[in-house]
Design goal:
It is built from five helices and 13 strands. The chain is α+β, with helices and mostly antiparallel strands. The protein has a six-stranded mixed β-barrel. Strands 11-12-10-13 form a four-stranded antiparallel sheet, covered by helices on one side. A hairpin with a 2-residue loop joins strand 1 and strand 2. Helix 1 crosses helix 2.
Amino acid sequence: MNRSNNQRLATAYHLHRSHRLLGALLLLLLALSACGKPPIISSPTGKSRVEAPPYSPAQPPAGRIPPTQRPYQIQGITYYPIPSAHGYSETGIASWYGRKFHGRRTSNGEIYDMHAMTAAHKTLPMDTHLLVENLENGKEITVRINDRGPFVRGRIIDLSYRAAQELGMADQGLAQVRITALGATEHYLEDGRVRQRFAATPDFEHGEFYVQVGAFTVRENAVRLRDQLQEWGRTAVIREYDHGGRLFYRVQVAAGDTLSGAMRFERVMIEAGFTDAFVVAH
């Protein structure tokens, strides 16, 4: 790509990043185009890359969205909790947290018990049950998500102290693991009391997946980005979203027909410095 094209791309995206970074990112995207239909991410404005609320298959009124499912910021990074853990699997580094947080409230309002089999995750819904496999020693445990974290680059889950012990990683502190969603705790009423039961999740690995790459209040900006993506050979669409009377134009790029493939490419984009990309299912 020549210098003038880089300049047009920088203008179209309204990014504060340099032309050199954008050129490198484009080369990365083109190199990955042979791996299915990975997405591309953009920024809605030059000042902030977060303009639209998170995606969910059926958006309820804003007041009814559980607080733990709303987007939140930590150290300048915006995290979008995903609407469902169906088909979720991820490999990465696990850590654990213990006595310093024992007795404090977790993100879902519970009191953290370092001796319970719980864990923290940045985006999975609360009460998701996970199978955690220690890839270094073969041990497996099951935990329930009741907190947010870990907010350290490269770590995918923060286990309770007991969970870390059961997994054989408490002494070393970190371990390479694979996490797989098993289901969720659902609440029901019986004899006037609220009870809990485990509900297994079906396999939603296959479907039609996109990655949202930008959200604009000016349609022309969304059209400009969509057209640029299509020039690169990507399948991009604009979807309108009315949020409290304010209309957003969300640019989404086809990411293939498997959730795992879409999430892999989402992580590539995040590692490239574009922290606002997230997977959506149509």
